[in-house]
From TrEMBL, chains A, B:
This is Dabb family protein. Gene3D superfamilies: 3.30.70.100. Pfam families: Dabb. It comes from the Bacteria. Residues 2-95 form the Stress-response A/B barrel domain. It comes from Geodermatophilus sabuli.
Length: 97, 97
């Protein structure tokens, strides 16, 4: 198995509507990407200063499937249209499970 | 269920031995923390520029168990003695699963 993890931190000036739009796009992609693997989206519970705002953990069969996942036009569109416009910081790791 | 995710990025000047020491301490804590939940440690596969170096995903029964996990002296020691000395950046989110 192969795992992709990314923590998103939104810009301080992003609006609640923009943030909800990004989460909605990620949720939709989570539905669309079932052909590749299982995506779990979490919104930070606010327990610690300096935390990110949301995290995606995606479990896939292998590294090759991750490459197809990452290149999928629906994935690229969700990032381009909804996530990147309000993205302050992105912390990611991909690893063998 | 409650999830804790943290992406670690090591300082550029940290040595391979220090990095392996941090991973070993996290692996040991992964064994010790079974009383709280399940910890998965992953080392970045090097697929993308700007990625973190390692990620920990911990799944726990609830938020209260996470608080006990976080306060455990063995956890604090692993961070203090092995992780923080070589830590460039830390991106974390905790959320309901």
């Amino acid at each position: 198995m192969f795992r992709h993890v990314v923590v998103f931190t939104w810009t301080s000036e992003s609006t609640p509507e923009q943030r909800e739009g990004a989460l909605a796009a990620l949720r939709q992609w989570g539905e669309d990407c079932r052909e590749y693997g299982t995506l779990t989206l979490g919104v930070d519970a606010g327990l610690a200063e300096g935390n990110g705002n949301a995290v995606v953990v995606v479990d896939l069969p292998d590294r090759e499937t991750y490459a197809a996942y990452a290149a999928d036009e629906r994935h690229l569109a969700a990032l381009r249209d909804h996530v990147r416009p309000i993205l302050e910081r992105r912390c990611a790791v991909q690893h063998e499970l």
